[in-house]
Design a protein that fits this description.
Strand order of the largest sheet: 1-2
Order of helices and strands: EEHHH
Largest sheet: 2 strands, antiparallel
Shape: elongated
Distance between the termini: 22 Å
Mean pLDDT: 80
Number of domains: 1
Structural class: mainly alpha
Helix content: 40-55%
Strand content: 5-15%
Low-confidence stretches: none
Bound molecules: zinc ion
């Protein structure tokens, strides 16, 4: 199936039977991020964590913190 990145509008093909595809179909995960953007965001999160001592570790793993 196809998933559109919410940040850069890039359309990626993802495995139809992958966990991510399943989550998107069930709307458990409303947003898709391409590898590039999720990397960029985890960099930012990392910076923020260092400056504000903000614990986002769990959210970072599921990538749900962007909502
Ligand atoms: Zn993207």
């Amino acid at each position: 199936m196809r998933a559109k990145c919410i940040l850069c509008d890039r359309v990626d093909k993802i495995e139809a039977y992958s966990l991510l595809a399943k989550q998107l179909r069930k709307k458990r995960k409303m947003s898709y991020l391409c590898d590039e953007c999720s990397e960029r965001i985890s960099d930012k999160t990392h910076e923020r964590k260092q400056s504000a001592n903000f614990n986002l570790y769990k959210e970072e793993q599921t990538e749900d913190y962007i909502r």
